[in-house]
Amino acid sequence: MFFRLSFILICLLASLATAQVPQILNYQGRVVVGSTNFDGGGQFKFALVNGAGTTSYWSNNGSSTSGSQPTAAVALTVTKGLYSVQLGDTTLANMQTIPASVFNNSDVRLRVWFNDGTNGWQQLTPDQRIAAVGYAIMASTVTDGSITSAKIATGAVGGTQLASGAVGSSQLASGAAAANLSAGGQSAVGSGGLVLSATENAALTSAGFVKLGSMSLGDGWQFRSNGSPSARSGHSAVWTGTEMLVWGGYHTSNGYFADGARYNPTTDTWTAMNGSGAPTARYNHSAIWTGTEMIIWGGYNGATYLKDGAKYNPTTNVWTTITTSSAPSERYNHSAVWTGTEMIVWGGGNGTSYFPDGGRYTLSTSSWGTTAPACPISVRANHTAVWSGSEMLVWGGTNGSALADGARFNPSTNAWTLISSSSAPSARFLHSAVWTGTEMIVFGGFNGTSYLADGARYNTTSNTWTAMSSTLSPSGRYYHTSVWTGTEMIVFGGYNGSAYLNTGASYNPSTNAWTSLTTSNAPSIRSDHTAVWSGTQMIIFGGYNGTSALNNGARYTPSTSTWTTISATSAPAARTDHTAIWTGTEMVVWGGFGGTLNLADGGHYNPATDAWAATATTAAPYARSYHSAVWTGTEMLVWGGFSGGYLSHGGRYATLSGAWTPTAGASVPPTRSGHSAVWTGTEMILFGGYNGGYLNDTQTYTIGKSMFLYQRP
Prior knowledge:
Layout: E1 3-12, E2 25-33, E3 36-37, E4 40-49, E5 56-59, E6 74-78, E7 82-87, E8 109-115, E9 121-129, H1 134-139, H2 176-183, E10 194-197, H3 202-206, E11 210-217, E12 220-224, E13 236-239, E14 244-247, E15 250-251, E16 255-256, E17 260-264, E18 269-272, E19 286-289, E20 294-297, E21 309-313, E22 318-322, E23 335-338, E24 342-346, E25 358-362, E26 367-370, E27 384-387, E28 392-395, E29 406-410, E30 415-418, E31 432-435, E32 439-443, E33 455-459, E34 464-467, E35 481-484, E36 489-495, E37 500-508, E38 513-516, E39 530-533, E40 538-541, E41 553-557, E42 562-565, E43 579-582, E44 587-590, E45 602-606, E46 611-614, E47 628-631, E48 635-639, E49 650-654, E50 659-662, E51 676-679, E52 683-690, E53 694-702, E54 705-711
């Protein structure tokens, strides 16, 4: 099957930089599947690329790089092979504005991908070069310097006619600004005036300013409440890109909630959500963000399981009720995914039964379609579900007995297709499943009696299973680690019900071959260890061997199939349940449990130098658990938690200097654990938590910095 693109018309609206002219490209095209004009709903992705197709100037959702396919699609109707779209029209889902700067490039071409819902994504060829309209061509012939002051009416150019930042120092004659101020009896900085600079500023010194010294602006906490929602747990929270939306939930004293609010960290304000049309009180509901709206559905209100919901638009502060016609049956703890055009709900339960069905809600038509009214597989739990990019694949699980069947649902055709049982893996649950980009790989698990050491690969295109080779495959196990390298799945360590393991293997689906991980220099037997993928190596550290906690490890290089023992010099003390983060160059380990006590130390490991540097104990946070830890890009920021009591302090660890800086500042938040913490790029935002009572406050933490002080003589 092949796709063909016929170019019909593409034109660029002139004056893209002019405010009243929309930054939109009108584009019409034609698609043919095989030898037949396509007719129906199609999924499209668009990118503007260079002539070689190796540079992305723009894409419909901004995710394309180096000419690659964007991650989100635009839904369009195709009639007898013809379709039309306004590229850059932000009223379309997954479409963003086209910057005028794109057309500073002399050769810009439109690249299109199409999915008919059956054959998957295909790149249409050739890329179409964008040509200027006639008047734009004429404008390019205007001679540089031909528009002079004589052609401009007095007063015609004011502040509103100048783009922000258009007039800089290079556009002003030397001394022009100073002369203008002097003529008005003013000065930019008067004699004796002070100027603060974030850096030592040679330009100020050259201008005659005298450096007086520097001052340190300390870390700062700021309490942010302003109408925040009442204390609660079990609520939903989504991030819109500019605001955090909190809704619903439960409190032991106040019951179930049907309200919420929006928090804007830029303006430090909470805005209560309009209650008109909002869903009824509930928790354990699903909440997804479509790009423009938050959709609430299902859940439980303490007495009844629900099958209704509503969608909330923060721009208009309006709720719109979701129809219950053809909606899935009442449930909670279901799964909900957003495909770019639809919300797919599947599974869940009602306190008595598990469900093998679901539904799909289409935003554009505000209607439900069933996810195959007669789902071909039985009720189950502990199954795996992966999204292939066009289908949801469900396999295995248990309904009291281990299962060995599955099915896949295609929302474009609204149909379930049984996954072939020929050569499928045996019945199991708690198995692992990964999506490689073309296949689902199922491995290991438990069948109620035995730990399993086999698996298979499922190809959606051919609806066939290919058994994974058993040669050199790992023995049955669980509590092991597994990482996907981009080409291989690596399994290591774990427990098999009677013994801790230090064996493993890497599986290459392209060759259907396992390669045993050598035990030479491999870590000793363990489970509950950490594993991070550096981009070239899997790094193992710590864990438990059935007798004691461990403080050793190794790194495995797939390209050479070798283990390299991690240096023990300056390694952190033995621990399990510690945290390990990858900074881009190092693995940072901190905290955890050492067998008798919580720990307040750690280390960072650099695989390039095979060296540990201990995290300093001076000014380090107290030993703790249930704390938050965020990576700022240069520091690991730890705060709060529990250590015999609730804590309200923390610290920042700088990997380059190997030093801790205690979090400081006035107005420190109350003690807590189980709170949420996010790093915005400039500050850490804390919300809620528990310290013997539920909390609903919002706090921000800003890291201090040095400022330099200059004075005009």
